[in-house]
Amino acid sequence: MGKAARILGILLLALAVLLGVYAGVGYLGWQSGQQMRSEQAAREQIGEVARQVQFARSDIDLGNYALALRRLEWVDEQDPENVTAQELRLIAEAALSGPDEANPLPLPAPTEGVGPTPAATPDTEPSRRLRQLEQLANDQEWAEAVAGLVAFQQTYPNVARRETDVLLFDVYTSYGVALLYTDQAELGLYYLRQAEELGDLPLEVSDQRQWARLYLSAISFFDVNWDVSIFYLRDLCLAAPFFHDACALLQEALVTYADQYATQLEWCPAETLYAEAYRINNGQEIARKLGAARTGCASATPPITGTIPITGALPISGTLPAPPDVIEGP
Question: How many C-beta atoms surround the C-beta of residue 96 within 10 A?
Answer without folding.
Answer: 14
